[in-house]
């Protein structure tokens, strides 16, 4: 299913040909429709400004043919007033036009950016684990701004040019039809180079957007705390500077190429315009000498030529220019059109009063079965030829494994309130199993049931409320401690916040800080220690008050005091909740009602508490993988409880 997500947006030669798609135009119009009255007002201002621009040449003609020869001072004064008044009126109307175009453009682009961001938020984890954050940012910033320029710049220019050409030609024909035909006769000299340059500029525009996205990606990877720390620890500052300089120069070179192509083009167009103007003045001069029309008429004609050739040139390339400007819309819509891998069914069930029973029914899962979530065809994935992979944009990532199936044919049942310990060697599939429960991914085969409901039938929002997850890598926003805690429950009172922090053994540390709960934690919480971050994450989950808890209990990188505080907090939060724990401590394993032993993606052993006999003892008696792990790992683990 997912392997064909991007077959319809592959970049090929046919795609790169400048062409307007009615489907694309209709799509853009759907975003513009709410602002149709403002668009109508914008159209009115275009007509007014264009009409007023036609008057000055007529004033020049009247000045030369009537006011000066007849020494008419009153007429001269009125003409002078007109020459001042018309630009003033034009400027005032232009301000209104700018206000309308800016309002329409900014509002429409805000709608487009919101649609893009909202769609990204609904994308499954598979998309984010394959995407590069910097290039996602480029879609949200560079491409959306490019789309705005297409509307507030290109579209208005094309519309203005059409109106200008029509009105100027009408006036010119009314003045002298022969000179008008002569002016139009050189139009083919404009069209051919314009069409060729338009194609080149479209290709350069797409290349520029791609190169900017790569440069943004590198900045995102190396200027966040994790990236900067890695660069410094390995002494790779110069390498990163060289890499950035290389990409920056590539962006600059494309800019120079675009500027030079445009300059050569307008140099040629200027030459053609000069030829046309000289022909008109030459022929018109002879007609003046013959007494066919006046000097004022040919002066007015010369002024109209400058108003004609520019718009005519633009109109000859209008469809190419517009198609080029629509590249940004195409790139934005490519992301918006990605199908959602994880989404609500119609009439999805709202989980309420969750008891916490969980069933894995013959569940299998492969990270490769869904492709890359669409990121690869967008060019958002890491280049396999690159010397360094990009950072994952989120703390949860898809484990890399040589196995085709991450987990296979998993069957078990958890009763409400039970503590389930997941154990097994590294790469056994434990983390993958915990990702499936909150529906970060859907099983490739089989089903997962909570309180009798298949997860696919349950609304994502209610599922998120029912399940709390604490990962080994704690993620905090660059904000205050209070804001990070309220992320779990925006309506929590200060008393509830403090109670949660008390339960997580972090309250006394927080109130000891100079700014207390208003302390800013820094990028990803790097101003705090690992244990402090983890306890804040636990407090955040306590505030959420989920019925089902999923957590990675790893504390191997913490000092013994932090480890003890976290362990105590975890034991407190797991009470009266269904808990699925990737267990690393013997105390948790001994307390578990159920122990699930994973190996190479399969559930190889299960142990269950049976009266006074613990799950741990049952598995030891089986003398299998668990017994081996106990002898080689758990038995010698530093444990403050055992």
What's a quick, concise take on this entry?
This protein is α/β, with parallel strands linked by helices and 642 residues long.
Give the helices and strands, then pairings.
Blueprint (H helix, E strand, L loop, with lengths): L12 H4 L5 H11 L3 H18 L1 H13 L5 H50 L2 H6 L2 H43 L1 H9 L2 H36 L1 H9 L3 H53 L5 H22 L1 H8 L1 H10 L21 E8 L41 E8 L4 E5 L6 H7 L8 E6 L2 E2 L5 H7 E4 L10 H6 L7 H10 L3 H5 L18 H15 L3 E5 L7 H15 L3 E5 L3 H6 L2 E6 L2 E7 L6 H8 L2 H8 L10
Parallel strand pairs: 3-8, 3-9, 6-7, 7-8
Antiparallel strand pairs: 1-2, 1-4, 4-5, 9-10
Helix pairs in contact: 3-5, 3-7, 4-5, 4-12, 5-7, 5-14, 7-8, 7-9, 7-12, 7-13, 7-14, 9-10, 9-11, 9-12, 9-13, 11-12, 18-20, 20-21
Description:
The structure is a single chain. The protein is α/β, with parallel strands linked by helices and 642 residues long. It has two domains: 22-336, Up-down Bundle (ABC transporter transmembrane region fold); 417-583, P-loop containing nucleotide triphosphate hydrolases (Rossmann fold, 3-Layer(aba) Sandwich). The protein is built from 24 helices and ten strands. The strands form two sheets. A six-stranded mixed beta sheet has the order 6-7-8-3-9-10, sandwiched between helices. It is elongated, with a radius of gyration of 35 Å.
Name the descriptors.
about 650 residues; Rossmann fold; alpha/beta; ABC transporter transmembrane region fold; four-stranded antiparallel sheet; six-stranded mixed sheet; disordered N terminus; disordered C terminus; elongated
Mean pLDDT: 79
Cα(first) to Cα(last) distance is 49 Å
Structural class: alpha/beta
> Roughly how many Å is the radius of gyration?
35 Å
Count of individual beta strands: 10
By CATH, the architecture of the largest domain is named: Up-down Bundle
Number of distinct helices: 24
The CATH superfamily of the largest domain appears as ABC transporter type 1, transmembrane domain
- Describe the global form: elongated
Q: Strands across the major sheet, in which order?
A: 6-7-8-3-9-10
| Whole-number count of domains | 2
CATH secondary-structure class of the largest domain: Mainly Alpha
Largest sheet: 6 strands, mixed
Low-confidence stretches: 1-18, 382-397, 638-642
Taken as a percent bin, the fraction of beta residues is: 5-15%
Share of residues in helices:
55-70%
């Amino acid at each position: 299913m997912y392997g064909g997500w991007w077959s319809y947006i592959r970049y090929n030669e046919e795609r790169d040909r400048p062409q307007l798609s009615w489907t694309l135009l209709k799509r853009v119009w759907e975003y513009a429709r709410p602002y149709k009255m403002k668009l109508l007002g914008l159209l009115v201002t275009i007509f007014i400004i264009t009409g007023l621009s036609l008057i000055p040449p007529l004033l020049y003609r009247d000045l030369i043919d009537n006011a000066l020869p007849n020494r008419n001072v009153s007429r001269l004064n009125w003409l002078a007033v007109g020459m001042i008044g018309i630009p003033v009126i034009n400027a005032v109307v232009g301000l209104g036009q700018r206000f309308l175009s800016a309002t329409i453009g900014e509002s429409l682009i805000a709608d487009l950016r919101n649609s893009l961001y909202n769609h990204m938020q609904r994308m499954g984890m598979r998309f984010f684990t394959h995407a590069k954050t910097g290039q996602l940012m480029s879609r949200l910033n560079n491409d959306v701004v490019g789309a705005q320029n297409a509307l507030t710049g290109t579209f208005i220019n094309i519309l203005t040019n059409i109106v200008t050409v029509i009105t100027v030609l009408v006036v010119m024909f009314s003045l002298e039809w022969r000179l008008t035909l002569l002016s139009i006769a050189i139009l083919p000299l404009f069209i051919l180079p314009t069409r060729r340059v338009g194609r080149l500029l479209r290709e350069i525009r797409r290349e520029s957007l791609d190169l900017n996205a790569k440069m943004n990606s590198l900045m995102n990877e190396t200027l966040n705390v994790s990236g900067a720390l890695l660069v410094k620890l390995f002494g790779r500052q110069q390498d990163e500077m060289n890499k950035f300089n290389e990409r920056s120069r590539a962006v600059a070179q494309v800019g120079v190429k675009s500027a030079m192509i445009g300059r050569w083009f307008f140099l040629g167009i200027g030459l053609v315009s000069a030829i046309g103007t000289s022909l008109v003045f030459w022929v018109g001069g002879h007609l003046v000498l013959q007494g066919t029309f006046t000097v004022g008429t040919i002066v007015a004609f010369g002024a109209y030529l400058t108003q004609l050739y520019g718009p005519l040139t633009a109109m000859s390339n209008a469809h190419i220019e517009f198609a080029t400007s629509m590249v940004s819309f195409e790139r934005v819509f490519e992301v918006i059109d990605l199908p959602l891998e994880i989404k609500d069914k119609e009439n999805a069930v709202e989980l309420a009063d969750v008891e916490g029973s969980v069933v894995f029914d013959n569940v299998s899962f492969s990270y490769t079965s869904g492709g890359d979530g669409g990121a690869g065809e967008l060019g958002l994935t890491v280049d396999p030829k690159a010397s360094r992979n990009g950072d994952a944009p989120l703390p949860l990532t898809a484990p890399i494994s040589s196995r085709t199936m991450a987990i296979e044919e998993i069957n078990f049942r958890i009763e409400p309130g039970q503590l389930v310990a997941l154990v097994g060697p590294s790469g056994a599939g434990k983390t993958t199993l915990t990702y499936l429960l909150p529906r970060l991914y859907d099983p490739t085969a089989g089903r997962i049931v909570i309180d009798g409901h298949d997860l696919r039938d349950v609304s994502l929002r209610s599922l998120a409320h029912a399940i709390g997850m604490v990962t080994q890598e704690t993620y905090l926003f660059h904000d205050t401690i209070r804001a990070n805690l309220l992320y779990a429950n925006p309506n929590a009172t200060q008393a509830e916040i403090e109670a949660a922090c008390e339960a997580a053994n972090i309250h006394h540390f927080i109130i000891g800080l100079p700014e207390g709960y208003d302390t800013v934690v820094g990028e990803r919480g790097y101003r705090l220690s690992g244990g402090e971050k983890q306890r804040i994450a636990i407090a955040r989950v306590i505030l959420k008050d989920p019925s089902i808890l999923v957590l990675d209990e790893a504390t191997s990188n913490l000092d013994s005091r932090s480890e003890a505080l976290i362990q105590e907090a975890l034991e407190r939060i797991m009470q009266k909740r269904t808990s699925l724990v990737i267990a690393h401590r013997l105390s948790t394993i001994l307390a578990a009602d159920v122990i699930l032993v994973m190996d190479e993606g399969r559930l190889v052993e299960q142990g269950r508490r049976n009266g006074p006999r613990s799950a741990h003892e049952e598995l030891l008696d089986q003398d299998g993988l668990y017994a081996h792990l106990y002898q080689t790992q758990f038995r010698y683990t530093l444990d403050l409880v055992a």
